[in-house]
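Section 3.1: Structural characterization of target chains.
Under the original work plan, the team committed to producing a structural model for every single-chain target entering the pipeline before any wet-lab resources were allocated. The record below documents one such target. The sequence was received from the expression subgroup and is listed exactly as submitted; it comprises 345 residues.
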Amino acid sequence: MEFGIFNLMGARDAATPAAQVFGEVAEQTRLADELGYSIAWFAEHHFSNYCLCASPLMMVSHCAAITNKIRLGTAVVVLPLYNPMRLAAEIATADSLSNGRLMLGIGAGYQPYEFERFGVDLKQNLAMTNEFCDILELAFSRDFFSYNGKHYQMPETHIAARTVQNPLPIYVAGHTPAMFRAAAKHGYRVMTSGRLGGTKLLAEQYADMVAAFAAENVPVSHAHMTVNRFAHITSNREEGMRFAENARYQSRLASSLRNRKEVMQGTVLVDVPFPSEPSLETIYDDLLIGDVETVAEKLANEIRATQPVHMCFSFKVGNTPHKAAMRSMELMIGEVKPRVEKALA
């Protein structure tokens, strides 16, 4: 079982400098490398404090220079917001700079607020992503290629920078059966999240993935399942409830951005409750929050429900203190993981 970290890089306090946010993520990535985490993932979003990182490939390249073994992943590069040829070259550059440690997570995007400001039609995101995936496969497998699609056309082209890894590990992020089928069809790996839900929701997502891979006649083992979860290890219930509130805050922003209901106060997104929002007590119970023994028990149940190859954890959420996130990182790998491995034999 591989463990990793996930970095959204939001700033709940508008006064927090971007340099501080990125610096803390770099420090967490260095610590993850030292502790033996397998992958550090970096998100991409635009135009709000929900996420300050506009280029996860830049974070990959930066962290490649300050780490030794940990693999570095994009979670995710929003394909329709890029020029295919430019992105293919940047992907190859990042894999070269990291000496083959890039794990490429890709997605179609979901936030109208972002797409409007890039002048891209969100209704076309899936069709654009399908063409983009075809282009990436050609770019990384051939010296020269051309493409003539509905959304992208290019003459005979050569990408001078080449990936170290062949093939490059590619992940698709999402929760829908259509996304799972696309991953199976293209030979991609799957990255999903239980959001604020618990084991029941994860089990439902896993069942959808199994059915989707079966529909494409692809062994489910090819999914190389990765699950991303909120996690905070503490014996102090008040501290745990604060983390639950931060997780709710982050999920509220994501929901408002997804549904084009974002509310801005100056440069800051306001966290607005979403339909069927669970209580803080339920969030606390469903997420990986609690002392070492509690988190180990919850995590073992989630692993049984989803059969993942890789679990990655969001330790720094909202205004969770940097030191608290680092402490959870240490406890997860040092004390929780051995208990989970014992429980799962």
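The first strand starts at residue 2 and ends at 7.
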